[in-house]
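Supplementary Methods. Inverse-folding protocol.

Structures were first reduced to a discrete structure-token string of length 312. This string, shown here, constituted the complete conditioning input.
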């Protein structure tokens, strides 16, 4: 018995439904694709090797590009210019102080973590701390380019500006942070991360608030967010490593991270307010065009808002 042909009307209806979903809910599509791409790479890799092997580390790095790839794919599916998106994403011209802040803010957070860790375990000698410098620099480069900062092309480069069309900066941060935490699930399943998933999620949402503050305050500096993310990933592990590892600390290391960076996030909300989390307006997409019912598009205003606001 043959399969009946699909009528052109049904096909057209399905295409219209997909186009509407992509146009009105770009962050939902982006999140699904980012998780799908990264999880596929990670689970495929970890099914044939251990996470700590050379191949496993390569797989972890490749999977971390999932959010950026998803941002480019959804941009293209929406009929928009990927080149325009990339130009916006790689716009580096900002006052030097913003790149300094991308390093200084994680350093302050790491200092707070160190105060807590050293008060519990004791202050290591200066020689031990000095020996960590080469390790930190190598980790900083890797975390910025391959295992952290490179995620920002998706999280802040695509998802956050879209969400800030409809939601306040704080709500958008929590939503991005929630997806970001969920995206890391395979790291817990395969034992790459050996810490409380709940405390880790709190830390990630706190990081998301801090990164939103930076992104909006710097007028959408994605490359600065890349540096900030990479510096956080590299710096927060220094205090634990200085005392012989996180296991040497009598309280969960993730709880210290959640507490310190949670305080920083709360202070930013209190200082700037939840609406924009900065002294500037919330940054919205500057590369988009809304597809109208007749198939035409409407462009952006100068600050990145579209003529009609999508659902997310």
């Amino acid at each position: 018995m043959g399969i009946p042909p699909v009528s052109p009307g049904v096909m057209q209806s399905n295409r219209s439904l997909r186009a509407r979903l992509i146009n009105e809910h770009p962050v939902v599509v982006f999140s699904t694709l980012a998780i799908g791409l990264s999880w596929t790479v990670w689970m495929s890799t970890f099914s044939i090797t251990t996470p700590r092997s050379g191949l496993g580390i390569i797989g972890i790095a490749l999977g971390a590009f999932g959010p950026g790839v998803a941002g480019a794919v959804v941009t293209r599916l929406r009929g928009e210019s990927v080149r325009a998106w990339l130009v916006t994403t790689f716009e580096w011209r900002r006052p030097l102080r913003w790149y300094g802040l991308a390093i200084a803010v994680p350093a302050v957070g790491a200092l707070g973590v160190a105060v807590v860790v050293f008060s519990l375990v004791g202050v290591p000698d200066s020689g031990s701390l000095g020996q960590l410098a080469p390790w930190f620099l190598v980790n900083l480069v890797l975390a910025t380019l391959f295992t952290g900062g490179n995620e920002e092309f998706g999280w802040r480069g695509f998802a956050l500006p879209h969400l800030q069309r409809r939601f306040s900066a704080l709500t958008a941060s929590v939503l991005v942070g929630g997806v970001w935490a969920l995206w890391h699930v395979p790291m817990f399943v395969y034992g790459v991360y050996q810490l409380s998933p709940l405390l880790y999620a709190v830390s990630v949402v706190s990081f998301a608030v801090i990164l939103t503050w930076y992104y909006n305050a710097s007028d959408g500096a994605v490359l600065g967010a890349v540096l900030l993310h990479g510096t956080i990933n590299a710096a927060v592990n220094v205090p634990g490593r200085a005392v012989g590892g996180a296991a040497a600390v009598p309280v969960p290391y993730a709880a210290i991270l959640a507490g310190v960076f949670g305080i920083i996030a709360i202070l930013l909300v209190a200082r700037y307010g939840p609406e924009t989390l900065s002294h500037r307006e919330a940054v919205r997409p500057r590369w988009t065009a809304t597809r109208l019912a007749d198939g035409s598009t409407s462009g952006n205003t100068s600050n990145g808002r579209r003529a009609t606001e999508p659902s997310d």
